[in-house]
Design goal:
heterodimer, A: 460 residues, alpha/beta, FAD/NAD(P)-binding domain, Enolase-like, domain 1, 5-stranded parallel sheet, 27 strands, 27% helix, 25% strand, B: 689 residues, N-terminal domain of TfIIb, Rossmann fold, Dimethylsulfoxide Reductase, domain 2, 6-stranded mixed sheet, metal ion binding (chain B), molybdopterin cofactor binding (chain B), iron-sulfur (chain B), Mopterin_OxRdtase (chain B)
């Protein structure tokens, strides 16, 4: 029975371990977690930061494994297949899984790296208490936007500082970016675009144009770096991340990497969906199945209350000349959609302020499904169905579904002398099921009455 | 001169059991809706036209035995019963008691369901008995039992819904399946979860349209929102439940944006749904077949129960959780021992105390009772195989149409040494039988039914049955005595059977011991449990506590998983199956009613116009819908509100139009419910020659 050691105790490690058990691995699994907390759902850190969940509230289910908390791996002896730890432990492995994650990047700005009221958002410890007073968020990527929005939602005074021309400039085009900045403003997030911090002073943050922001707290959301030190020291192939193949194997076939530390096909994904897919592929592989990871479709869906925004595919796809591009711009209502279609499929999209279209276009993209022929329906995410009012219904339309009574049958009953809803019910059984069509029958009666009166007047 | 009279009884179809007054007049039998609480003067087209069933031209009028020429030939009752008993005896002697199987139905009266279970366990000595209710609400039954310690479809009267502010309907389409129920939902704002824009969804204040097979992800997301957005009733959760933390640890991975990607339901719509439910003073969560008929049906229903518990709804006056049971006696049918793992009174057959009690009532030693048998699909799947039954008795069911993977099941049925079907019309299954036994139907017999709210109702006889038809109770008596059982064990008078059922159910979860024909005939509204003659019955369960020893409801730690089949290159679409208003179940009855057949004459496939266009299909043409198991043929109906990745087929139609020719054999691990609601298919024009 092979012995598995997992370095790291984040969501990728957790999912991998669960799926190993699911796929029937009954041998020993040791999980080494550097944090003293049990595994938790990093995606929900924002909810801890803004106070809607407690630290315990994001704990992941207990694992059927030997989980060592507060233990860091310090080295790998590949010849002996051993992992050494900072507590002096030695763990023999048959298969080693690196799920070491990533560490936040902190810009080299005086006063920032030495800690004074500066935090990153990577671990539970970072979210221990809600930032007080005025908060500057450094970095307007997806994490920065989400953090800024969450803090503002909790009543904090937030300013978002971002070097790009607009927030999320790696995912969005200029139109969407501008709408996002405006929307953030209405939600109480100030922005400083095309600005960088140059110095952190007590209670202040100095920007490169000389502006001095009052900031009791600085939250740094400037991206992450894969944790590759262990792999590098062990002589594994490392580029930006630990390089893996489709089976998640590193350059050593008994060592694997998943999640934010892994680089597959030249990409370090950094998305939870990728980490989970990689964990699943590896678990299948290590239990004798044919798991294979082929990369994850890039769908960036902002998790920020009151902002409906998704970016699908690359910005290049959106700008491609070969694509059929469907665009709707409705700036007054804060709505914008740009969808690039190739062969009737969604190649790329940016959708802002179209909640239903975000849901349906994402599914069309994920399923590689052809899009609706009605492009307006595509943009709205609906198959616009209009319901005729009852008097406009064709004769063969069913008015009372419970008793399958058509408009024609009602009209016939009317002309046969049934002049009230009760008479019509007697004659046709309409309204005698759920009763939901009573209003429709009344309206049709009314219109027949009017028409009969008009005819009588006309005759007179 | 026919007897001119009127009786108060109930509609022969769905679990609502609308009250009717049947009159025998010179022109024939007429029906009027009564002011019975569930229908309050309403009836749907099925109910209005039900008398047509009584003189359907191809009514079975004589027992029939298949002769050497392969044809069914009319014989007298003694001959037919002798053939059956002789065959059963021979097969049992050669292959043991489990070589005989029994397949019951959720439309049988309580008395029939009870006596059928007793007959199987005593006269046949077989463990191999199950029924079509397994295909109906078994997932909700398992989830409800786990959560509340008791499964009663609605633990409150239907009329309570009338004062609800918000009702969430998950995979339920009562506007078509039980229209008079909608009267009680007129006041409430409806939140409807359904992949299709059904007649019910059209009336919704909010319609969530998830991809088929993803409703568990959706409800995990709703629970997630309830927690993160602070809508949970923490006092209730603390005081009245256990297991929240473990359930939350699963739901926490289902943040709304992830749920949106998996289900196709917009984040904003998810939030609105939870807010509507949470802000309502009175709110209900109701599930139907759409949530239940999956290989994860129990977990899906548990997900909805979790949501209801987090919001503090169950066991609270004016709020709650319930399952909309489908078949006429779907509730009673699951309580009296025709289920593979159960004895009367909703007792488990593996529970020694339950065995002792029931064996005592039956006058046999407990060890003589067989153990649990195969579930419905597994039973049908095993027919004619090594170790599987070689004879099957079918009562009140038409599995050739209603079972999943119908092509395979038909093959299994035809591999039997002996197939016996008791029915009143020549259903598709009856046509395959070696022996057909003509039995009485609703207006020709007395008995009790238990409707979706756990209320026991009297079915009353209006008229004498055709000359050669016998009641199922008489059939069981005739067979049992031929198999050497003492006749007194199988009474033929429904009232006598009911009195025995009362004793057998005493002390069980579904305790009927205090319910009598007299009390029912005096107009008492009696919901079980009713443990004594003075007990008023229990219209509302759980107000003082749930039926677990500690009185607390259980959250279930459930997680989403994909359906057994996901779309592939060969089968790129998802098919889901369901019902239409004018037909009922396998259609064996309603297809014989001219008005209903005119309203819904043939199978159809609902499909988005774009999807149809790409497949070369046009409105009104014939389509062939194929899955890995087979294909069915249906008329194309273009529906602009369909998801482009999904098609819908009703399952009521026979032969090549059977929707179940494409459904699969994946079962829920706990309820053994088949996955009717999602199959991977492709669709193409049907070329007629």
């Amino acid at each position: 029975m092979s012995r598995i050691v997992v370095v790291g105790n984040g969501p990728a490690a957790h999912r991998f371990t669960e799926r190993m058990r699911h796929h029937g691995h009954s041998g020993p699994i040791t999980v080494l977690g550097a944090e003293s907390h049990a595994a938790y759902n990093r995606v929900l850190l924002g909810s801890v930061l803004d106070g809607s969940l407690t630290a315990d509230g994001i704990a992941l289910p207990p694992l059927d494994a030997d989980v060592r908390l507060g233990v860091s791996a310090t080295g790998i002896d590949r010849a002996r297949r051993e992992v050494h730890t900072d507590t002096g432990g030695v763990h023999h492995y048959d298969e080693l899984v690196l799920a070491t994650g990533a560490r936040p990047r902190v810009p080299d700005v005086p006063g920032l790296r030495d800690g004074g009221s500066v935090r990153t958002l990577r671990t539970l410890a970072d979210c221990a208490e809600l930032p007080r007073g005025r908060v500057a968020v450094l970095g307007g990527g997806i994490l920065g936007v989400e953090a800024a929005r969450a803090l503002a939602g909790r009543g904090a005074d937030v300013v978002l500082v971002h070097p790009g021309r607009y927030p999320m400039d790696r995912q969005l085009d200029a139109t969407a970016g501008k709408l996002l900045a405006e929307r953030l403003g209405t939600l109480g997030v100030e922005t400083r675009l095309e600005r960088k911090a140059v110095e952190r002073q007590p209670g202040k943050l100095v920007l490169d144009d000389g502006e001095v922001l009052l900031a009791d707290e600085v939250v740094v959301c400037a991206g992450v770096e894969p944790e590759t030190g262990l792999a590098q020291h062990a002589g594994l192939r490392v580029a930006h991340g630990v390089v893996v193949d489709d089976g998640m194997a590193t350059s050593d076939p008994n060592i694997h990497a998943v999640g934010d530390c892994a680089e597959h096909g030249g990409t370090v994904s950094g998305l939870i969906a990728s980490a989970w897919e990689q964990a699943e592929a590896l678990a299948q592989r290590l239990t004798g199945a044919r798991g294979r990871y082929r990369g994850t479709k890039t769908v960036t869906r902002l998790k920020a209350r009151g902002i409906d925004l998704v970016s699908i595919g690359s910005r290049e796809a959106l700008a491609s000349l070969d694509a059929e591009v469907v665009t709707l711009s409705d700036p007054a209502r804060g709505r914008y959609a740009r969808i690039a279609l190739a062969d009737e499929r969604v190649a790329g999209a940016v959708l802002f302020g179209f909640p239903q279209a975000i849901a349906s276009v994402t599914q069309l993209h994920d399923g590689d499904l052809p899009v609706p022929s009605d492009r307006l329906g595509l943009l709205l995410g609906t198959a616009a169905a209009t319901r005729a009012t009852p008097v406009e219904l064709p004769d063969d339309a069913v008015v009372c579904r419970c008793n399958n009574v058509t408009k024609k049958a009602l009209t016939t009953a009317w002309h046969g002398g049934a002049r009230s809803v009760a008479d019509i019910a007697q004659a046709t059984r309409a309204t005698t099921g759920c009763g939901g069509c009573a209003d429709d029958v009344r309206r049709i009666c009314g219109s027949l009455r009017t028409r009969t009166e008009e005819q009588q007047e006309g005759a007179a | 001169m026919p007897d001119l009279r009127t009786v108060a009884t109930h509609c022969p179809y769905c679990a609502l059991q609308c009250g009717t007054r049947l009159s025998r007049e010179r022109a024939g039998v007429t029906v009027r809706p009564s002011d019975f609480s569930v229908n309050n003067g309403g009836l749907c087209q099925k109910g209005w036209t039900a008398p047509a069933l009584l003189d359907t031209p191809d009514r079975l009028r004589n027992p029939m035995v298949r002769g050497a020429d392969g044809r069914l030939t009319a014989v007298d009752w003694d001959t037919a019963l002798d053939v059956v008993a002789g065959g059963l005896r021979r097969i049992r002697d050669e292959h043991g008691p489990d070589a005989v199987g029994v397949f019951g139905g959720g439309g049988l009266t309580n008395e029939k369901a009870y006596l059928l279970g007793k007959f199987a366990r005593l006269a046949l000595g077989t463990s191999q008995i199950d029924y079509n209710g397994r295909f109906c609400m078994s997932s909700a039954a398992a989830a409800g039992t786990a959560a509340f310690g008791l499964d009663r479809g609605l633990p409150f009267p239907v009329t309570d819904l009338a004062s609800a502010d918000v009702v969430l309907l998950a995979g339920a389409n009562p506007a078509e399946t039980m229209p008079p129920l909608m009267q009680h939902l007129r006041h409430a704002e409806l939140v409807v979860i359904d992949p299709r824009t059904t007649a019910t969804a059209e009336q919704a204040a909010l319609h969530l349209q998830p991809a088929p097979g993803t409703d568990l992800a959706l409800v995990l997301g709703l629970l997630h929102i309830a927690v993160v957005d602070g809508w949970t009733d923490t006092d209730y959760v603390r005081a009245r439940t256990t297991g929240f933390d473990a359930a939350w640890q699963r739901a926490l991975a289902w943040w709304p944006e992830r749920v949106e990607r998996v289900t196709g339901v917009a984040v904003s719509a998810q939030r609105t749904a939870v807010r509507m439910l949470a802000e309502a003073e009175r709110a209900y969560v109701l599930t139907g077949r759409g949530a239940e008929q999956h290989s994860k049906g129990v977990d899906t229903v548990s997900g909805f129960v979790n949501l209801a518990l987090a919001l503090g709804l169950p066991g609270t006056e004016g709020s709650g959780y319930g399952c909309l049971t489908g078949q006429g006696n779907g509730q009673g049918g699951r309580e009296h021992g025709q289920k593979a793992d159960q004895l009367p009174g909703y007792r488990m057959i593996t529970d020694p105390a339950a065995r002792e009690h029931v064996a005592g009532v039956w006058g046999v030693p407990p060890e003589s009772l067989p153990g649990p048998g195969r579930s419905a699909y597994e039973l049908l799947d095993a027919l004619g195989t090594a170790g599987g039954p070689r004879a099957l008795l079918v009562f009140g069911s038409n599995p050739a149409v209603s079972a999943p993977n119908a092509g395979h099941i038909t093959e299994r049925l035809s591999s039997l040494d002996l197939l016996v079907v008791a029915d009143f019309v020549p259903s598709e299954t009856a046509r395959m039988a070696d022996v057909v036994l003509p039995v009485t139907q609703w207006a020709e017999e007395d008995g009790t039914m238990t409707n979706l709210e756990g209320r026991v109702l009297r079915r009353r006889r209006l008229q004498v049955p055709p000359r050669h038809a016998r009641s199922d109770l008489e059939v069981l008596h005739g067979l049992a005595t031929r198999l050497g059982e003492p006749g007194h064990r199988y009474p033929t008078a429904p009232r006598e059977v009911f009195d025995e059922l009362r004793r057998a159910s005493r002390g069980g979860r579904a305790d009927y011991s205090g319910i009598t024909y007299e009390r029912l005939d005096n107009g008492e509204a009696l919901h079980w449990p009713c443990p004594g003659p003075e007990h008023p019955g229990t219209p509302r369960l759980f107000l003082d506590g749930f039926a677990h020893p500690d009185g607390r409801a259980r959250f279930a730690a459930v997680d989403h998983r994909d359906p057994a089949e996901t779309p592939s290159e060969d089968f790129p679409l998802r098919a889901t199956t369901g019902r239409v208003l004018a037909q009922y179940q396998s259609g064996a009855q309603t297809r014989r009613v001219p008005d209903l057949n005119a309203a819904a004459p043939e199978s159809f496939v609902e499909i988005h116009p774009d999807t149809a266009d790409r497949a070369g299909l046009s409105d009104g043409g014939l389509a062939r819908v194929s899955s890995a198991r087979g294909h069915t043929v249906a008329r194309v109906r273009l529906v602009g509100t369909m998801r482009t990745d999904t098609v819908f087929l009703p399952f009521h139609f026979p032969d090549q139009a059977r929707a179940n020719l494409i459904t699969g054999d994946a079962l829920d691990p706990r309820s053994r419910m088949p996955e009717f609601k999602v199959s991977a298919v492709r669709i193409q024009p049907e070329v007629t020659r």
